[in-house]
Specification:
Helix 1 packs parallel to helix 6. Helices cover 45% and strands 0% of the residues. By secondary structure, the protein is mostly helical. The N and C termini lie far apart (52 Å).
Length: 152
């Protein structure tokens, strides 16, 4: 059975986000929070992943373990595709000339009906529910800069 239909993101209040995010799951039983932690972390417990915040007793352990795993990866950033090309060419030279800037695999053809911004404080609530991912993303950005320095 399909879940309840949700309104568009810009129609949700900050309180709606606070109530929905920790309890929302996809059709595949995956939560809506902490995608980097879900992919790179050690846990498969969706409730644990979906509710991980800096207040959780295991936060430091999980962050450090996930950051260690992430530090063994080649980091690329779509928004910095030219620099990502340099990193890929340096660390994986057998790929040949790489141009992720021109690749549009899985590009959406959907057009947004309404591109208005999120409700007041909604962005803050989303970040609060994704604290481990925000910190892992910042760590990944730092790794990206280190890898770019090595590649140039």
């Amino acid at each position: 059975a399909d879940g309840l239909p949700l309104p568009q993101a810009n129609e949700l209040s900050a309180l709606d986000w606070a109530n929905l995010l920790p309890k929302s799951y996809s059709d595949y039983s995956e939560g809506c929070n902490n995608e980097i932690f879900r992919t790179m972390g050690s846990s498969i417990d969706e409730t644990y992943i979906n509710t991980m915040t800096t207040y959780h007793p295991s936060f430091s352990y999980e962050f450090n373990k996930t950051a260690k795993h992430l530090s063994k990866c080649i980091i690329i950033m779509n928004e910095r595709c030219e620099d990502s090309n340099k990193i890929l060419s340096h660390f994986i030279p057998w790929l040949g000339k790489v141009d992720i800037c021109s690749e549009k695999i899985n590009s959406s053809t959907l057009k947004a009906k309404d591109k208005t911004s999120l409700a007041a404080n909604a962005s803050q609530v989303i970040l609060e529910n994704n604290q481990i991912d925000e910190l892992l993303y910042q760590f990944g950005q730092s790794l990206f800069e280190q890898q770019l320095k090595a590649a140039t």
